[in-house]
UniProtKB/TrEMBL annotation:
Organism: Caenorhabditis japonica
Alphabetical list of NCBIfam families matching this protein: sss
Record Pfam families: SSF
Domain of life: Eukaryota
Protein name, per record: Sodium-coupled monocarboxylate transporter 1
Coiled coil: none
Length: 586
C-alpha cells in the first residue's frame, strides 16, 4: 500500500482478550469449589464427579461443548484460508459431519452408552476379551490427541502473535497454562461449562466479523462476494466429480472420507463419548446430537464463509502476492484485523473467539487423555491400593502432565508446515483405522482378536507410509486459485509479484512425485477404513472364533437395543487376569 497501515490495537482489545482468559480460569475454580460441596453429600464418588461430572450434566452445556470441541483455533483460521486459496471443497468436508452425527446417534451410541464406562476403550475388553487391543487403540488415541493438541496450540499463537504484538511463545504458554489450570482444577464440569461460554464467544465473534466485513466498502456487499467466489472457480470446485484418489479433493472424497473423519471425532472418540456418557440417559444423549446438527452446520458454514468475504476484500490486492504475509493460514487474522480494528474492542472479541476455540479443544483433550490413561493403563493395577480421593488426585496429576506435554510439544510444531495441512493429514491417517476397528466389531460378529489386530496394524502402517510420503514431497504446494492483484487494487503500489500457475494441472499434484504421495490427504480416512475392513474380513474367514456370537450380541449392531448383561464381575476378573499377562503394557 502507498501509505503505512496503523496496526496498533486499542487497549479495549487487550482488555477483552484478558477478560476472556480470566473467565475461563474463574469457571474452573468455581466448579472445583462446587464439586467439593457436592461431594460432601456423599451421593457420588470424587473420581466420577471429576471425570464424568457425576453423570448428571445438563443437556445444553453438553451440546455447546460438543459444538466447540472439534472446531479448534486452527480450523477457525485454516478453513477460511482454504476457501480463499482453493475453493469450497473444505466447507463440504466439514458440514458432512452432520451425517456422521446421525450415524453416531443411531448406530454407535446405543452400544457405547449402555456400557456406563468412563472410557470408551473398555469396549474392546467386552467385545474381544483383549486388553492388548484396548491398550493399542488407547495408544493410538493418545498419539492422535497429543499431536493434534500441540498443533492446535501452536498455529493460532503464530497467527495471533504479529497482530497482538506478543511473542508467539508467550501466547503458547498463556494458552497452554490457562487450559491446563482450569481443566486440572474443575474436571469435566469445568471443561463443559467453559466450552459453553466459549461457544457464545465464538458465535459472537464470527457473526461480528461477517457483518462488519459485508458492510466494508472494499468488500462490496454480499452480491460481490458471491460473484467473485463463482467467477473465480471456487464454488464450482464443490462439485468436482472425479472418482480417482490421486487428486487434491473431490465431491466423492468429501462425502465418504469426510464422514469417516467426523465419525472418528463424534462417534468413536473418547472426547465425545465421555460427554454423551455424562448425560443421565441414552435418549438425552441422542436428543443432544440431533439438536446440535443445525447449529453445527451454521457454525461450519459461517466460519467457511469468512474465507469468501476475505477473498472479496483481498481479490485485487492479495497479501500473499504483496508480501504482507507468507502463509495462507494468516489470511483470516489480517482480514479480521483490517475489518474490526477501527472499532475498539471488536478485534479483541475476535481474538477471544480464536482463543476460545483453541482452549475448548485443548481442555477436552486433556480431560479425555487423563480418563484414557487412568482407565486403560493404571486402574486395575491400582485396584484396592488407592482410595477414591487418591484416584481423583492422580487424575488431576495426569491432566497436569498432559497439559505440560502438549505445551512442550507445541514448541516443536514449527517444523510441521501448514497447520491445516498437518491436521488434515494426521487426522485422516489415524481416523480410518480408528473407525474401522469399531465397525468391524459391530458389524462382523465372527471377527476375533487376531483378525482385528492384524488389520488394525497393517492399515495404520499403510496410512503412516502415505502420510509421510505426502509430507516429504508436498505434491500440491503449487495448487491455488487465482486472484486479480493490480496497482489500482493496491492503491497505486506496484510492489507485488503475481503467483504463476505451474505448467501441469496442480489439482492432480506434481507428476514428478510418487503416486502414493499424491493420494489425497482428504481421502486418507476412507483408504484406511476400507483397507482395515477388507483385511479384517478376509482374515476372520481363516480365524477360529474365540467367542460365542450370541454372548457378544449386545455389543454388536444387531443387539444395540438389547440390555446390558448383569455379569460385570466376569469382565472385572478378566481385567485382573489380563493385567498380569500384559504387565509389559502396565
Amino acid at each position: 500500500m502507498s501509505k503505512e497501515k496503523d496496526v496498533s490495537l486499542h487497549w479495549l482489545d487487550y482488555t477483552i482478550f484478558g477478560l476472556s482468559i480470566g473467565l475461563s480460569l474463574s469457571t474452573g475454580v468455581y466448579h472445583a469449589i462446587k464439586s467439593r460441596i457436592i461431594l460432601r453429600r456423599g451421593d457420588r464418588t470424587a473420581k466420577e464427579e471429576y471425570l464424568m461430572g457425576g453423570r448428571q450434566l445438563p443437556p445444553l452445556p453438553v451440546a455447546l461443548s460438543l459444538l466447540t470441541t472439534f472446531l479448534s483455533g486452527i480450523l477457525m483460521l485454516g478453513v477460511p484460508a482454504e476457501m480463499f486459496q482453493r475453493g469450497a471443497q473444505i466447507w463440504l468436508n466439514f458440514v458432512i459431519g452432520v451425517s456422521s452425527s446421525i450415524v453416531t446417534c443411531y448406530i454407535f451410541l446405543p452400544v457405547f452408552h449402555k456400557m456406563k464406562s468412563t472410557c470408551l476403550h473398555e469396549y474392546f475388553i467386552h467385545r474381544y476379551n483383549s486388553i492388548l487391543i484396548r491398550r493399542l487403540f488407547s495408544l493410538l488415541f493418545l498419539l492422535f490427541t497429543i499431536v493434534y493438541m500441540s498443533v492446535v496450540l501452536y498455529a493460532p499463537s503464530v497467527a495471533l502473535s504479529p497482530v497482538l504484538q506478543i511473542n508467539k511463545w508467550w501466547l503458547v504458554l498463556i494458552f497452554g497454562c490457562t487450559t491446563t489450570l482450569y481443566t486440572c482444577l474443575g474436571g469435566l464440569k469445568a471443561v463443559v461449562w467453559t466450552d459453553s461460554l466459549q461457544a457464545v464467544i465464538m458465535y459472537t465473534g464470527v457473526f461480528t466479523l461477517i457483518y462488519k466485513g459485508l458492510s466494508h466498502p472494499r468488500v462490496g456487499g454480499l452480491e460481490r462476494v458471491l460473484n467473485i467466489a463463482w467467477e473465480s472457480g471456487r464454488v464450482s470446485e464443490l462439485v468436482r466429480m472425479d472418482w480417482r484418489i490421486d487428486q487434491y479433493n473431490s465431491l466423492w472424497i468429501n462425502l465418504f472420507s469426510g464422514t469417516i473423519v467426523w465419525l472418528a471425532s463424534f462417534g468413536v472418540n473418547q472426547l465425545a463419548i465421555q460427554r454423551y456418557a455424562s448425560l443421565p440417559s441414552l435418549k438425552t444423549a441422542q436428543d443432544i446430537i440431533i439438536y446440535t446438527l443445525a447449529p453445527f452446520t451454521v457454525l461450519c458454514s459461517i466460519v467457511a464463509f469468512v474465507g469468501f468475504i476475505a477473498l472479496a476484500y483481498f481479490f485485487n490486492c492479495n497479501p500473499l502476492e504483496t508480501g504482507e504475509i507468507t502463509k495462507s493460514d494468516h489470511i483470516t487474522i489480517i482480514f479480521a484485523r483490517d475489518i474490526l480494528q477501527p472499532t475498539p474492542g471488536l478485534f479483541g472479541l475476535y481474538v477471544s473467539c480464536i482463543m476460545s476455540a483453541t482452549l475448548s479443544t485443548l481442555s477436552s483433550g486433556m480431560n479425555s487423555m487423563a480418563a484414557a490413561i487412568y482407565e486403560d493403563f493404571l486402574k486395575n493395577s491400582l485396584d484396592g491400593k488407592i482410595t477414591d480421593t487418591g484416584a481423583t488426585r492422580l487424575n488431576k496429576l495426569i491432566v497436569l502432565l498432559c497439559g505440560l506435554t502438549s505445551t512442550a510439544l507445541a514448541f516443536l510444531a514449527e517444523v510441521l508446515g501448514g497447520s491445516l495441512r498437518i491436521c488434515i493429514s494426521v487426522m485422516g491417517a489415524m481416523s480410518g483405522p480408528m473407525v474401522a476397528i469399531f465397525v468391524l466389531a459391530l458389524f462382523f460378529p465372527k471377527s476375533g482378536s487376531k483378525s482385528c489386530l492384524i488389520s488394525f496394524f497393517l492399515s495404520n502402517l499403510f496410512c503412516l507410509i502415505i502420510c509421510i510420503a505426502n509430507f516429504i514431497q508436498d505434491p500440491y504446494h503449487d495448487l491455488f486459485l487465482p486472484t486479480n492483484t493490480t496497482m489500482e487494487g493496491c492503491d497505486g503500489n506496484s510492489n507485488f509479484t503475481i503467483r504463476m500457475m505451474p505448467n501441469y494441472n496442480a489439482h492432480y499434484g506434481d507428476p514428478s512425485t510418487l503416486y502414493i504421495s499424491r493420494i489425497s490427504t482428504y481421502s486418507y480416512a476412507g483408504v484406511g477404513f476400507v483397507l482395515m475392513i477388507a483385511i479384517g474380513w478376509v482374515t476372520s474367514l481363516f480365524e477360529k472364533s474365540d467367542h460365542s456370537v450370541e454372548k457378544i450380541r449386545h455389543l454388536t449392531f444387531a443387539g444395540r437395543n438389547e440390555p446390558w448383561p448383569d455379569a460385570h464381575h466376569e469382565f472385572d476378573h478378566f481385567l485382573k487376569e489380563g493385567d498380569r499377562k500384559m504387565s509389559l503394557f502396565s
